[in-house]
C-alpha cells in the first residue's frame, strides 16, 4: 500500500475535512479535474492520480482492446492498485468523509473500485461511466451515495448501459441518483450542479 503508487497531485484542504479523489478521462492527466474538484468541495483535500496506462500516448487507468472492450485482467490489476492507493491516503489523513468523482475512463475505474471495496467511498459521482460487464459487488452498498450522470445521445456510453448500471447499484442497496442531459459524452452544467448537491448533502450528513 503506497500513497505514491501513482503520479498524482494534492490540493490541501481543511485539516480533518473531507477528501475528494478525482479521476480523469482518457487522454487527461492529474491536472484535469483539480479545479472542478476544488469548486465542488472547497474545504476538501483533493487528490488526483494520473492513469498509469498509455494508449498511444493517452493516459488511462486500465487497458482496453477496443472502444468499450476492456482487458478485464488489467482492469482487475488497476482496481486493486487504485483501491490500495486510496486506502493509503485515507488511513494517513483520516478525513471526515471520502468522496470520489470520475469522468469517462476515470468513472469506470472509480466504479470498479466501488464494486471491489463498497465501504471505501461515502459518496461517488460517476460521469458518463461505461460498465459493459455485470458488476460483482464485494459486499453491499447500503448507505453509499452514488450519482450517475449521462447524455441521452452519448455514442460512447449508451443510455441503456447507464440504466442497467443504475439497476445494479440499487439492487446492492446504494442510494442512487441519475442526472441526464440531452447531449453526448460532454459534461454539462446540470451534471456539475447535481454533483455539488450530492457532495454538499454528504458534508451536512444528509
TrEMBL record:
UniProt cross-references to InterPro entries, sorted A to Z: AB_hydrolase_fold, Dienelactn_hydro
Q: Which residues form a coiled coil?
A: none
Q: Which GO terms describe its molecular function?
A: hydrolase activity
Q: Which Gene3D superfamilies match?
A: alpha/beta hydrolase
Superkingdom of the source? Answer: Bacteria
Any idea what this protein is called? Esterase
